[in-house]
Amino acid sequence: MGRRRATAIFVALCAVGMQMSAAAQGPPLRQPPTSSGNRTQGGTQTVSPTVVATHVAGFTSEGARVLELLVLWRGSPAWFTRASGSGTSGGGDGRRYNSTLRYGGLELRLEFDRQSRLAMIQGNRVDLGNDNVVFVDGVDAVTGLRVVRTLRIDPTMNQDQFPRIDEVMRRSPEILSFLQCDTRLSDPLQQKLADIVCANVLGN
What we know:
Layout: H1 3-15, E1 41-46, E2 51-59, E3 65-74, E4 87-92, E5 96-103, E6 106-113, E7 118-121, E8 124-127, E9 133-137, E10 146-151, H2 165-169, H3 173-178, H4 188-202
Parallel strand pairs: 3-9
Antiparallel strand pairs: 1-2, 2-3, 4-5, 5-6, 6-7, 7-8, 9-10
């Protein structure tokens, strides 16, 4: 892929980073649901030079948004810019949430059952228990990705119309280290954009 195409993809990913998958969105949060367990929101965004994050949020009986699952997909630097035809999709029925990430010939799949706390990540079964974060590495490796570990963080999320997953990630030193924000990219424009994304996550 040429530099112009790669840069365009990176810009697009950064621009839509805070948007949620349309199929997973419900009514604006100013009219929260009255019961829990029947609604989810989810989305995928670029959060560092090497990591794309997919989150799934649920709601309490009072309508407050809480983090159900955060998957950190890590690969080689700028792995998500190396092919055309990128896009993400996601949605669920309240109990189950499914998401597909496509970057050229690379396709990543997530299936999550909120009731059983079971996630299937590219065919890998992950029993979450009380945890709500999954670290995945080597997403673009020839040998395939691997699930590194799971972690629990404070699930409290902002209650604005759009979720701020960066605020959630900022609570965990393990997550911030996993992002590899000190990675340097060869393309100067991509590096500037990566600096902006990382500054947003790190709160700089």
